[in-house]
């Protein structure tokens, strides 16, 4: 290879820019860290928490603001982390949820496709029904969300992939499904896993009895691991000679399996060193009258990532909580 070609390729490697939406959020912060650590130029967008940061304030419901951000930052990659990701909150605001989980990624995908920008859209295991005996789900398995959150994220997947297909840019739009996340948090309520620390603490401090789900299976996955995979996917797709032949949908998950009650037991007895005798296991499953029906087991197969040669290892759940004291907010 001629020297000038080699130098050109090295320059391209060293001058990559990523734009992360939801950069001030629970996952977005770790995606920022992962790309910065690997010497990328990193830009971020946020909306409600950008004051005092270097991130751009962008209303993702405004296509003009998205366009301006893309044209200012000129990224090769966008990682779309912004979403309404709490099922109960989604049910309370269906219109707003569809705006952020469906309309916004459609606009973002359209504008990225026009500019030949790789878009990684973060989706969820809740696109599946999670019926007993069906998991683990391959990336091409039949979907069937049980609640509005899962449906809007699935609709967002379709919106992203449809926009890139319509533009003739298939291979630049990629869906990455992940399960429930845990990791470094500014507030425990940022994570459906981290917040269980608060339940353990309250049960101890107040002497109150709490019923905790001991039915649905969950596979808590660390945000730092998800962020690393986002980076590795970005590199793999940018460098691919035949990008159109690569899979459109990828999935990443830990193999650590717990119910919410079992997570409380780990956090209480193995991490905090306290009894959880006031937290009682609830094995009844979904309340048929509840507006949000949660799936039993949506475990994601990581086969597609492994076939690409991407590292799917994850941090040990118990080990991380014992080791990383930053996670403690109790």
UniProtKB/TrEMBL annotation:
InterPro entries: dTDP_dehydrorham_reduct (IPR005913), NAD(P)-bd_dom_sf (IPR036291), RmlD-like-bd (IPR029903). It comes from Diplogelasinospora grovesii. One of its GO terms (molecular function) is methionine adenosyltransferase regulator activity. GO terms for cellular component: methionine adenosyltransferase complex. This is Methionine adenosyltransferase 2 subunit beta. Residues 17-311 form the RmlD-like substrate binding domain. It comes from the Eukaryota. GO terms for biological process: S-adenosylmethionine biosynthetic process.
